[in-house]
Design goal:
- InterPro entries: CoA-bd, NAD(P)-bd_dom_sf.
- The structure is a single chain.
- This protein is of the alpha/beta class.
- It is about 35% helix and about 20% strand.
- The protein contains five helices and seven strands.
- The strands form two sheets. Strands 2-1-5-6-7 form a five-stranded parallel sheet, with helices on both faces.
- The longest helix has 14 residues.
- It is globular and about 35 Å long.
- The two termini are about 15 Å apart.
């Protein structure tokens, strides 16, 4: 299995940067994972609820540790999200286009996490399934 297949085989997901604004990429990724029948939790410290689902400020606030994390945040926020993911024990991280941060990728890989940060888009891959 390649890194994307491993990510998509996870049982639980979180989306850092999920949003209630439907034109925003974080909202589209969150809805796409839900539409693909994935157990998915939205992460956004500024929102209480996203698309009818309770939103959480950070990974540490989730009721479980998600196996996979999709990140749609600015790179400077990505660093903090990845540090939290490493501390929590997340197994797979997908930095969506624009969220990539070399330092965060390196830290995650050193922690043994499967990292996707090559510009691949989860929306395209989910549509192909």
């Amino acid at each position: 299995m390649n890194s994307i297949e491993k990510f998509l085989a996870a049982k639980t997901y979180a989306v850092a940067g999920a949003s209630n604004r439907q034109h925003k990429y974080g909202n589209k990724v969150f809805r796409a994972l839900l539409a693909a029948s994935r157990e998915t939790y939205p992460l956004n410290p500024a929102q209480d609820e996203i698309e009818g689902h309770q939103a959480y400020p950070s990974i540490a606030d989730l009721p479980l540790v998600p196996e996979a994390l999709s990140i749609i945040t600015p790179p400077e926020v990505t660093r903090k999200v990845v540090a939290d993911a490493i501390a929590a024990g997340v197994k797979h991280i997908w930095m969506q286009p624009g969220a990539e941060d070399n330092q965060a990728s390196e830290s995650a890989r050193e922690a043994g996490i499967n990292v996707i940060d090559d510009g691949a888009c989860i929306l395209v891959l989910l549509a192909l399934q």
